[in-house]
Design goal:
Blueprint lengths: L1 H15 L13 E6 L3 H14 L3 E7 H7 L7 E7 L1 H10 L9 E8 L2 E7 L1 H5 L5 H22 L1
Antiparallel strand pairs: 1-5, 2-3, 3-4, 4-5
Helix pairs in contact: 2-6, 4-6
Length: 154
Amino acid sequence: MFLRFMRVCFLVLLWASPSLADDVSPIEGTKVFHSELAIDDFMPRLKSAIAAHKMGVVAEACADCGARQIGVEIAGNRVVMIYHPRFAVRMLEASIAAGIEAPLRLYVTEQKDGTQLSYRLPSKIFSPYGVADLDAMASELDGIFENIVADAVQ
């Protein structure tokens, strides 16, 4: 009974949502980019850019894959979690509490005319901790993320 209820709730949410992701006004510190590539063509390009800039894919969440498992089709939707041990060590040396922020995420959504990539600036994610070494690391990560996106979206 509970699973049936959850399925109905999920379907209602999907019905109330557009079939393809909308451009929403992001919160401060969020960068949004567009590629004309379809999501299935964009994802390998993104992963290649991540590797080229010496970052690693820690995990990938696939909402449309999960929806398909319950017989529902939704627009392509991925969260790609990236990081690298060299940053993990620096982060934890600067602030154990900041460990909750890793890995950092790239959000990829299928659009009517291609793919949207968005992410929060690492400098915005880590700034609330108020630790100079963490801020310096986050600034480096801002540049790396910018380069990853430039390579993936071009």
